[in-house]
Amino acid sequence: MIFDVVTIFPELICEYKNYGVIKEAFIKNIAQLNIYNLRDFTKNKHRKVDDRPYGGGSGMIMMAQPFYDAVKFIKEKNQIKEKEKQKVVLLTPRGEKLNQDKLKYFSGIKNIILLCGRYEGVDERVSKSVVDIEISIGDYILSGGELPAMIILDGIIRLLPGVVHCKDSVKLESFENGLLEFPQYTRPPEFMGFKVPEVLIGGNHKEIKKWRDEQSVEITKKRRPDLFDKSF
To answer: Is residue 141 part of a domain?
Structure first.
């Protein structure tokens, strides 16, 4: 799977691929990450990528031309013939909210091109000319799209076959069955007066599964009633 990230701060993305299970994905060539500096695609001699907004207002708006040319260059380089297997994603607060289902959908695509905005926003003509989907990671504002891009990369890559060694660890995570994950414990059996539930120590796998299922339901009902209402 090919990931292409377009940003004015490529250094923010570069170190990301050197840690954890994500590092293995790149070593094994399960995933490929290309990082492009948006300034390399500007036609301005000063490598300028932003300008004042039409209609007035504070801040600067990122220009359409550099993004357009960057996407055009990447598509020509990657040569993905099936259009449905290549998606251009703009990271923006007004986009569709990211969730596990969207990450699963993206994990089945051959090429994702992530566009990272900055400043007060991106010229609307970028969305109209080259973007397939706009994605938001939540109802809050960040300085730019680089952190959201890394979140999307991380969420997708760990779903790719061969990245996470234990398949069950992915299947049993929060959101996989519409519920939050049950509580987890490890050694020692008692810490600061808090004991591991007896059912987990007893070795009865049927009772352990029952306990975990019940805990998932209770935790979801208490902490995320919105998820609970969808599941029941």
So the answer is: yes
102, 128, 157 - which closes a domain = 157
* Three-state DSSP state, 59: coil
Q: Residue 148 sits in which domain range? A: 2-157
Give whole-number Cα distances, 203 to 15, 191, 210, in Å: 42, 20, 13
Same domain, 13 and 88: yes
Task: Give, rounded to a whole angstrom, the gap between the first and last alpha carbons of the chain.
Answer: 36
31 and 157 in contact (C-beta within 8 Å)?
yes
pTM here is 0.89
- 162 inside domain: no
Percent of the chain with pLDDT over 90: 86
What whole-number distance in Å separates Cα of residue 22 and Cα of residue 3? 13
Question: Beta-carbon neighbour count of residue 163 at 10 Å?
Answer: 20
Total domains in the chain come to 2
- Residue count of the chain, please give it: 232
